[in-house]
Amino acid sequence: MKKIGILPVSRLPEYYEGRYFFSPILGCAARCHYCYIYGCGLTTNVELNERPASGCVGYLTESKAFVSGVHGSILAIGAWGDPFPSHDEKACHYTLEWLMELSELGNPIQIMSKYKLSDYVIDSLSKANKYFGHILYSTSITSVASSGKLEPFADSPAMRLSSLKQLKMNGLAVNVMIKPYLSGVTDCESHDIAIALKEALVDCCVVGDLLVDSRVSRVFKANRLPGVLCSSGGRQSLDCSGGNKYEVADKSGFVNFERELGRYGVKVFRKSSCVSAYILSRNNPANYFNHDPDGYCVKCGACQ
């Protein structure tokens, strides 16, 4: 079997706290310096998952934890590689094949990219969307001013947000992952980020911690990248890895940053599964409302 880095180019969905994580693409050419995948054996090459979508759907429907339908399990696409690398049309079409097959199940789907989407991808996502909240499209921002240093081969936040805005205008639910939140960088750009979100018609976002491993620490030091990486003293699960724990970086300014976004009418969450639950007025299968050791629940009113 062909391998990418130290891993085979074949990956079944991972399951954690009510979500299944699918990876049609393995590896990512964006080379974001804070990204977890490079410390988990994947590389900057873009490879197609050799396990076909049909096989993953079969695995899913046979899983004892799987619940079908709008109030069922959440399906997240893109955990181990950006699903829509703008420089690779074949990879984008492959992701769409997976999405089309998964969308037939009717479950809520989450998908995100750090690239500007082609008109074809935007049109395909819009046509696959069966109800509001069926497909939740996200992009991410850590910094506007320093994006080129932190995410050297991703598209600019402005380009990413232009695609998200178009999808919102086409009737899709959208969200921005302000993830990772990088102390000393993200908090210093609260006004600019809030304005960018409002101009893109965004009213929901997720502010997430920077998870630090030895590779991330080494890369930040070697490249003299901005931000505070010292540990906050906490540890947090990486959902798509089945819950492996990582150190959480310093979160100074986190609360004030969230308040600034709120002043502009942007509702702040800690997990994207909560965004899906809020949009669909349903319980989050992760059940943070009743069991929340990491403090994710923001009491949005969706769960009972």
Can you offer a commentary on this structure?
By secondary structure, the protein is α/β, with parallel strands linked by helices. Helices cover 30% and strands 19% of the residues. An eight-stranded mixed beta sheet has the order 3-4-7-8-9-10-11-15, sandwiched between helices.
As laid out across the biggest beta sheet, the strand order is 3-4-7-8-9-10-11-15
- Beta percentage is 15-25%
Report the end-to-end length measured between terminal Cα atoms.
46 Å
Number of strands: 15
Provide the gyration radius in Å. 18 Å
Report the helical percentage.
25-40%
Shape: globular
Count the helices. How many? 9
Which class in CATH terms? Alpha Beta
CATH topology: pyruvate-formate lyase- activating enzyme
CATH architecture, by name, is Alpha-Beta Horseshoe
**Average pLDDT across residues?**
93
Helix/strand class: alpha/beta
Provide the domain count: 1
SSE arrangement, N to C: EEEEEEHEHEHEHHEHEEHEEHEH
| Low-pLDDT sequence parts | none
Biggest sheet layout = 8 strands, mixed
State the gist of this model.
By secondary structure, the chain is of the alpha/beta class. Helix content is 30%, strand content 19%. Helix 2 (89-103) runs parallel beside helix 3 (119-128) and helix 6 (190-199) packs parallel to helix 8 (254-263).
